[in-house]
Amino acid sequence: MDRKEFLSLLGFSTASAALVSCLGGCKKDAAASAANTTGPAGVDFTLDISQPANAALQTNGGYLYSHNIIVAKTVNGDYIAVQQSCTHEQFTLAYEASQHLFYCDGHGATYSETGAVTGGPAPRNLTTYKTQLSGNMLRVYS
Ligand code: FES
């Protein structure tokens, strides 16, 4: 008797067997995700905002991703930086300057411009980074 026949005798369908299998695996995946939702540590890099690749940072409301961090220029012209991955399940965040928030398409989490959770299933605030503009050089650091 093979596994399928055995499960059939017990009244298990293939779908229920898959569900049982997923329950154990999904729990493990969720634990792994939770352990990896912090932003990078020891950050210290510089972006030349005069370069075309960084042009988004010349416009209020613009943003880009660098070193697993979102670097943004608010509608008020301030530079802010937070981890780019959601603290829920690591989906990549987007910045919505007009709403003054970071948004996750995964399950709808929102964060303020200071990284605080403002909605959705996110379990904790975003890691934030300091910024310092000197001429065209924008330093982002821990
Ligand atoms: S991954 Fe962002 S809300 Fe779930």
Describe the 3D structure:
The chain contains 2 helices and 10 strands, in the order ααββββββββββ. By secondary structure, the protein is of the alpha+beta class. It has 2 domains: 33 residues, no CATH class; 98 residues, Rieske Iron-sulfur Protein (3-layer Sandwich). Strand 5 and strand 6 form a beta hairpin. About 21% of the residues have low confidence. FE2/S2 (inorganic) cluster binds next to loops.
Query: How much helicity do the residues have?
Result: 10-25%
Number of strands: 10
Count of the domains:
2
Largest sheet, if any?
A: 6 strands, antiparallel
The low-confidence parts are 6-35
State mean pLDDT (0 to 100 scale). 83
Could you say which structural class the secondary elements and strand pairing correspond to? alpha+beta
CATH class of the largest domain: Mainly Beta
Task: Itemize the secondary structure elements and their pairings.
Elements: H1 3-9, H2 14-35, E1 44-48, E2 63-66, E3 69-73, E4 79-83, E5 93-96, E6 101-104, E7 110-112, E8 117-119, E9 128-134, E10 137-141
Antiparallel strand pairs: 1-10, 2-3, 3-4, 4-9, 5-6, 6-7, 7-8, 9-10
